[in-house]
Amino acid sequence: MLDIPGHLQPFGGKNPINHNIQREDIMNKILIVLTFVSSVFSKTGFEIAKMVDEAPTPMDMSNKTKMILTNSKGKSRTNAMISKSMAGNKKQLIWFLEPKDDKGVAFLKIEHDNKDDEMRMWLPAFKKVRRISSKKKGDAFMGSDLSYEDLSSRNLDENEYNRLDDEIVNGKDCYVLEITPGKEANSSYSKHVSWIEKASLVGVKEESYDKRGRLKKVKEFTFQILKDYHVIKRVFVKDVQKNHTTEITFSDVQVDSGINKNLFQEKNLKRLPRD
Q1: Nearest residue to 122 (alpha-carbon basis) of 109, 112, 111, 134
Q2: Mean pLDDT across the stretch 38-50?
Q3: Averaged over 113-136, what is the pLDDT?
Q4: Residue 25: phi, psi to the nearest 5?
Q5: Could you count the other beta carbons within 10 Å of the beta carbon of residue 138?
Q6: What digits encode the pLDDT tens for the residues 240-275?
Q7: Are 159 and 181 in contact (CB under 8 A)?
Q8: Domain ranges in the chain?
Q9: Is the Cα dihedral 210, 213, 216, 221 positive or negative?
């Protein structure tokens, strides 16, 4: 009998039919992996934005909020507030508690899908409710680096989404999206660049550009997990053109506590909550 060296025998002398079966099994597994990898990397900007938009959010949320404003000279001012919201923050009431000259000021926001959002501010010093029109969305909210537009959700279909190269931010693997508002968005910005953590689908950083294409704001976001939701814990915003910053921290956060939907009415702007 001819003695064939082991390294020349088909797979150590094993049955070639079994080898073919094994090879097909391996190839099928590789194909599955490649298909999965391809599907991950082939996601478009819009598809990623849609995933973010459809991520679960609390039915309602309440918290105590501290907002620190710091100007270019390093002088700071601190506001204390109570906030209640529902429907993914599309309905929100904010009451100002401190400083003394702002106590009683309140803000109501109700977002709509098919018409302009409603925004109202109660100014107790003037005993007047001021309506904030869509033309004023770019104005600063209570002297902060957040505009009224920044406080509102973005309509998925009113923006264009371009996926940029993925990046690591603070150790987090992120999608990077360039978001360009359409005319119907009536935005005060020319574009945003958003870094979205892949694992949680929450934004960790965003740059916003003015109408001339110049960098206007840099925003950083920190989240905590409550009842399986990723809930905002801290927001830091810097207006790079004014060298002015806003830091917002959230405490005593409660989710899905059963807030009454009737709370979000103009008459309740004047009623400071007890807690």
Answers
A1: 109
A2: 81
A3: 91
A4: -65, -45
A5: 15
A6: 999 999 999 999 999 999 999 999 999 999 988 875
A7: yes
A8: 6-42, 49-270
A9: positive
Strands 128-131 and 159-169: unpaired
pLDDT tier at 115 (50, 70, 90 boundaries)? confident
Is 145 buried (19+), middle (13-18) or exposed (0-12) by CB count in 10 A? buried
Query: Which residue(s) pair with 222 in the sheet?
Result: 234
Instruction: Copy the structure tokens of residue 101.
Output: 């000259």
Q: What DSSP string runs through the chain? A: -----GGGSTTTT--HHHHHHHHHHHHHHHHHHHHHHHHHHT--HHHHHHHHHTS---SEEEEEEEEEEE-TTS-EEEEEEEEEEETTTTEEEEEEEESGGGTT-EEEEE--SSSPPEEEEEETTTTEEEE--GGGTTSBSTTSS-BTTTTSPPPGGGEEEEEEEEEEETTEEEEEEEEEE-GGG--S-SEEEEEEETTT--EEEEEEE-TTS-EEEEEEEEEEEETTEEEEEEEEEEETTTTEEEEEEEEEEEESS---GGG-SGGGGG-----
Domain 49-270: give its CATH architecture: Clam (2.50)
CA angle 101, 127, 85 (to 5 degrees): 75
Mean pLDDT lowest among 23-27, 58-62, 130-134, 226-230: 23-27
The three-state DSSP-derived secondary structure of 34-55 is: HHHHHHHHCCCHHHHHHHHHCC
Length of the chain as a residue count: 275
CA gap 139, 128 in Å, rounded: 19
Asked if pLDDT for residue 6 goes beyond 70, the answer is: no
Which residues share a beta bridge with 127?
none
